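Hi support team,

I submitted a single chain yesterday and got back a structure, but I'm not sure I'm reading the token output correctly. Could someone confirm the output below corresponds to the sequence I sent? I've pasted both exactly as they appear in my results page.

Thanks,
R.
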Amino acid sequence: RQDDQEAVVSTQSTGKHTQHKVTQYKAGKRNKKALGERRYRMKQMGFGGQTKPVFRKNAKTTKKQVLRMECQTCHKKKQVTLKRCKHFELGGQKKRKGQMIQF
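Hi R., thanks for writing in. Yes, this is the structure output for that exact sequence:
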């Protein structure tokens, strides 16, 4: 699936269609000072091995793609979830029917 890097979308705050910058969402770095992370580290300390279950039964082969859209006028950000796809490219060349493959 291919999408453009800019889109014209309605903004809730202004109520108008404005230009948005589109990027692919990426999960941020985990914070070591978060309460859950501290609690987990304390529980893991000492003897007794792994204390929490480690999920190993992954059934899905794909992930849902999330687009992060930033309004160019008011700089508000919103996220739009796309369907599942194996290959995702943002702003790539679009495939055309009946075109020759060039190397």
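A quick pointer for reading it: The first strand starts at residue 2 and ends at 3. Let us know if anything else looks off.

Best,
Support desk
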